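Sharing a chain and its predicted structure for anyone who wants a worked example. Both blocks are below, sequence first, tokens second.
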Amino acid sequence: MNLNEALDQLKNAGYKYTNKRAMILEFFANEGRYRTAKELLSFMEPHYDGISFDTIYRNLHLFHELGILESTELDGEKHYQIRCANHHHHHFICRKCGATKRLQVCPMDFIDDDLNGYMIEGHKFEVYGLCPACQVA
């Protein structure tokens, strides 16, 4: 998802455009990896004196609920990135820099027989480790 698509989705859901919301979405659109609320706050503070964690978390929650942002938990802290695709997929996530790599397979394709008779309502699969750049650093 790019910045314009994210802003359109926000508008189509009935939420108003603000410069803060646009800057938050621009931050994630330009990053291309998972980032924390703390990192976003550090990015926003020079532009918005007195911006609070409450404002950051409220917008992160909204964008996640609208499907604009994806989230994961790394080391007990929630991390976010802009939704990268409209189709079902999973990621490898670097624990050091937050970079992601899309995985081409879904483990659910291999366990159908194990769950015969069960009603599956959803799943999440992520692989964690270090990307090639962080292994060298």
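Comments welcome. The two ends are 30 Å apart (CA to CA).
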